[in-house]
Amino acid sequence: MEYPGNLFVVAAPSGAGKSSLVKALLELDAKLAVSISHTSRAPRGQEQHGREYWFIEPAEFRTMADRGDFFEWAEVHGNLYGTSRAGIEDRLQHGEDVVLEIDYQGALQIKQLFPYAVLIFILPPSWDELRLRLNRRGDTAPEVIAKRMNTARVEVAQARHFDFVVVNAVFDTAVFDLKTIVHAQRLKYAAQRRNRSAVFQALDLP
Ligand SMILES: Nc1nc2c(ncn2[C@@H]2O[C@H](COP(=O)(O)OP(=O)(O)O)[C@@H](O)[C@H]2O)c(=O)[nH]1
Ligand SMILES: Nc1ncnc2c1ncn2[C@@H]1O[C@H](COP(=O)(O)OP(=O)(O)O)[C@@H](O)[C@H]1O
Fold first, then answer.
1. Pair 124, 130: CB distance under 8 Å
2. Residue 179, ligand 2, Cβ within 6 A
3. Which of 13, 104, 115, 205 would bridge 200 by S-S if both were Cys, CB 3.0 to 4.6 A apart?
4. Where is the secretion signal located (predicted)?
5. What domain range is 115 assigned to?
């Protein structure tokens, strides 16, 4: 499948800083939009339906999956998550850029469907720091943290299938790395199409 918009996929083990980084990236780049996923998990803390996720019942999720409503979906930490076609197809068709914040299983499915998608894996600087961040966030029970640390080992092993790996040690440096990847992809895509105006647009030149 091919659309004129760029597709960026960001995956990371839970607690590595993916949500915070993507949020900061969106604040820097008005031309990017993040896709809101559907999930069967219950909302956490201040989360709102339609803002962090579309929260739906497992049965409804299964119906959507059977109907082919998702570009990809996967079970993560015992819950179902999916990227709906309706959420991003329109934007991509209009040449707008989209970021997917999803797990590695979803990322690999997206790469099959959209070979030009740019897959970015966020790594924490160390396992100890990952545990610290999960603890500090304060919204995850100790037994859940232990489970996520185990899953993190499986997830990190998948980083080799990604186009880029960004280490989130110093936050601002990691945001800058992401911004550079997005910028480089826009220039590459514009150059591939030999489209002078698209190159100028990507450079933010008049
Ligand atoms: N495959 C897939 N994974 C998703 C999707 N949305 C979120 N995820 C992933 O599901 C995992 C759990 O997310 P979440 O419940 O928000 O917990 P968090 O890991 O603490 O942020 C994370 O790795 C997300 O990136 C989606 O649409 N598809
Ligand atoms: N570079 C960093 N240095 C220190 N703490 C960070 C950094 N990046 C993120 N954090 C913190 O780590 C915790 C997990 O970040 P979050 O964005 O929720 O992770 P994820 O979306 O990957 O689960 C949050 O409390 C966040 O503020």
1. yes
2. no
3. 205
4. none
5. 7-35+97-202
